[in-house]
Amino acid sequence: MKKQFFLVSLVILTVGISVSCKNNKVEAMNYDVEYKSLVEAFSKGESSYKDCNDFYQNIKEDKITDAISELSDRMNSINDSKNNYALGKEKYLQEQWVESYKFLSNVIAEDEENYNEAVEKKNEIMSTYINEAEVLALGYYYDEAIAKLEEIAPYSKDDSSVNEKLNEYNTKKDELVLYEGEVRNIFFHSLIVFPELAFDGDFMQKGYNYWMTTVSEYKKMLEQMYERDYILIDINMLYETEYADDKSVIKKKDLYLPKGKKPIILSLDDLNYYKYMEKDGFADRLVLDKDGNVATFTKLPDGGELVARDNDCVPITDVFVEEHPDFSYRGAKGVVAFTGYEGIMGYRTDLFDSPTFEEDFKTAKAIADRLKETGWRIASHSYGHINFQDKGITRVKKDTKQWNDEVIPIIGKTNLFIYPYGASVKKDDERFKELQKYGFEVFWGVGGRGATLRYADDFIIMDRCNLDGYKMHFGPKYLEDLFDIDYVYDKSRPKFE
Ligand SMILES: [Zn+2]
129, 150, 174 — which closes off a domain? Predict the structure, then answer.
């Protein structure tokens, strides 16, 4: 009996020990499996860090196996990743691209909830950066393109495209060459939008046919000059002003251009939208469109009205350069020259008593500001479009003062002067000295190929070539290197007399 009891007890004890041992194992295995599935759910965004971590904290220390420790590390990495993703997304929404990229780069593949989206956002940011840098580099803003990519480069080590682009831009920057050929100066007046109205047989027809260019001709000229490697440059690339003994001295500047490119300085005369042009097929005034771009306002022949980035040289050039950034060296566009006697840009800023004077003044000023921001420079074309060779000093004094008083407040200071009728005066002429008193330093006349460029200590003189009906008809040899006249020429022009 005793023996039996002992045996039974032994069996019970053995079973008990074995059961309790087995229970311990089961518990540990359950922790493992359950914790693992919690961490997996957390990774997928189906359970929270708190639930996961609470579970882990509740596991007694002596039950923590290597597998559980590993899972805990994984849980914490995923949590870091999720926090980085949240910050990256926040910065993304705030359009802080570099910051966003930086945080998104810390999102790991085990963070299943966010990884794909983080990669997608990173790629999107990277391609935005590369595209923006590419547009800058196309417009020869190499330093700016390099700086742009260098913002993001430290966080994109796993993406070789940034370094490839950086190398490319650095090489291109070193490839600029000293340009020693001629600099062409070309100019236009307001463009003819509706040839049927400009060439309607009235007494103005001949003048328009001679001195104006049509919209279609202008667009074709730009297209061909672009194809032939011409490039718009800013007048400031040709000179610099040094100050010595309180005197400014003008110095010729070396012109460095991308290899093979030929420089052009564009200027636009009389962008005033004079009264005489009304109803003759031109735009009516410059305006700012809803995006703040310089556009034209045109009354259409059918009575309608149109605001468009079209119908005159400024908006057409702006759009062309946006589409072909490599047609402009670092955003250069051209020089816009205004008289003042009928206001500027189609606004009667000369009529102080006009009920709309203040508004007109403000609008013209806003457009002038936008022009200057977008690569245009503004020049004087005298106040009354006077012929400097014909008028005496008294008239020149009055005219120059009036331009200074009425137009400068709208457009700001300028040192650029374009002679009306191309009628220039000599450097020791008192009328020239009068212009100099107002700070004019760069003077343009008209003539030949528009490639003369003369430097003196305190001024520069240049000629310009008119790309209009007159020149296409009477001086094609001056134009044929720029474009194919047969292709450009508007067939709606009347016969030349
Ligand atoms: Zn003029």
Answer: 174
Ligand 1 centroid – CA 163 distance (Å) = 51
Say if residue 321 is in the same domain as residue 461.
yes
Q: What is the pLDDT of residues 154-187, one digit of tens each?
A: 888 777 889 999 999 999 999 899 999 999 999 9
Instruction: List pLDDT tens digits, range 282-313.
Output: 999 999 999 999 999 999 999 999 999 999 99
Closest by CA to 485, choosing from 68, 475, 495, 494, is 475
Structural domain boundaries enclosing 357? 179-488
CA of 244 to the centre of ligand 1 (A): 35
Q: What spacing in Å lies between the alpha carbon of 471 and ligand 1's midpoint?
A: 16
User: What is the Å distance from ligand 1's center to 416 Cα?
Assistant: 14
How far is the centre of ligand 1, averaged over its atoms, from the C-alpha of 264 (Å)? 20
Residue of 416, 431, 334, 424 lying closest to 374 (CA atoms): 334
Q: Tell me, in angstroms, the distance from the centre of ligand 1 to residue 150's CA.
A: 47
Distance 204 CA to ligand 1 centre (A): 16
Asked if the model's pLDDT at residue 14 lies above 50, the reply is no
- The verdict on 257 and 144 lying in the same domain is no
Contact between residue 210 and residue 446 where contact means Cβ atoms under 8 Å apart: no
SS3 state at 457: coil
* Dist. CA 385 → ligand 1 center (Å): 6
| Partners of 460 in beta bridges | 442, 455
Burial label for 272, CB within 10 Å (0-12, 13-18, 19+), is: buried
Domain end marker among 121, 151, 174: 174
Q: Could you identify the residue written with the tokens 């700086």?
A: 147
Same structural domain for residues 170 and 188?
no
Quick: pLDDT tens for 320-377.
Answer: 999 999 999 999 999 999 999 999 999 999 999 999 999 999 999 999 999 999 999 9
Q: Look at residue 16 in the predicted model and tell me its pLDDT.
A: 44
- Would you state the pLDDT for residue 157? 77
Ligand 1 geometric centre to CA of 324 (Å): 29
Which residue in this structure is represented by tokens 């070309």?
Answer: 186
